[in-house]
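Chain entry —
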Amino acid sequence: MRTTGKSGAALPALKKRYRVGIRLLDWSQGFGYRIFSGILEVARSGNDLELVFEQPSGGDIAPVVIDENWEGDGLLVYRYTATEATAWARKGISVVNLSTESPSIGRTFPQVTLDNEAAGEMAARHLLTLGLRRFAFWHDPHRRYSIERLEGFRRELGREGYETQVFEIPASHYSDRERASKIENLAWKLLAKLEPPVGLFTKDDISAVCAVRALATLGLRCPEDVPVLGVADDMVHCSITQPALSSVRFPGRQIGSKAMQLLLSMMQGKKVADETRILVKPVQLTVRESTGLVELPDEVVTKAMRFIRAKIPERGVTVDELCRAAGVSRELLRQRFQGMLGRTPKDEIDRQRAQIVCEYLRQTNWTIDRIAGDLGFGAADELCRFFKRTMKVTPGEYRRGGSPTRSE
């Protein structure tokens, strides 16, 4: 529709004001607020939107309920029921699902989610830097995101010749009333099968909290015996344990931004297939005490690995200074590394340094010069030669293949 001004000239039609509902889970608020920041980033960029957020207020604000009776133009939801899906579809409401999970029956909607396999791969790469040779995964076989994280974790470890011990704890199939006690009772029985030192990757931060508590019941130390790593980087869950949890950070801002952009296009008439799924790679792994100093069976290798891990983020390490730090001869150090890790000290130094370069290439859009300076290389060409020798590709080739994303 077009209107006219006093002069009779045609004026642009007014833009439709869209009403958009946002529903996150109550237990996801720690990392869920990152999603909201991404949503706002798009919503405030010249778009006329009424945002309706299902947010508890302790009774001070009249509650907003987003369910099958909700009326509006669009929805961004973190999980939904088959009944809700049918009702929303019948009303013509555009919906984007922010969760990996969908109802087992009925209508599905386009998704924007974390790339769970990439999260699993990132977790494996981090645990590999600790010098471990045994690895385990805390798994809920009834959750798609857990299946995908296990797949990425197992695949990355398999590339290095390692297997993954899987502990199945089907928390999603327990009732709310008995879930906590069932998880606790099963967890310590399963984790008792661990043979330290072993790196434990859990499907999410909540499971990591449960794991740390179960390990304490068993008298196993974290991280000395069992380093533990979660997913989400939820500040509350990662801080309430002793030690604090390392975690793959949930890229909420990017997910919220992409989801809002997709929803806008759908509300404006763009046809998007229900099976569409946009994957957002994790861009950061927050390292805390739970994946700190691991005690390997060989004390010499443990001491040397700690030295490498402490120095590598800032500069290169020579085998000679590694020998001095470990207090042994060059030949003895080589024998100990071969026996414990199956590679030489020089191989391990290069492997850990190359992995850090990989993280920079994946997580940032920094120039090679800047990365070289930050990691203690003499110049960009030195980093390029090192990377080509160790990874068999150039930094540019690796970056293009890794689809780097700017960090939050």
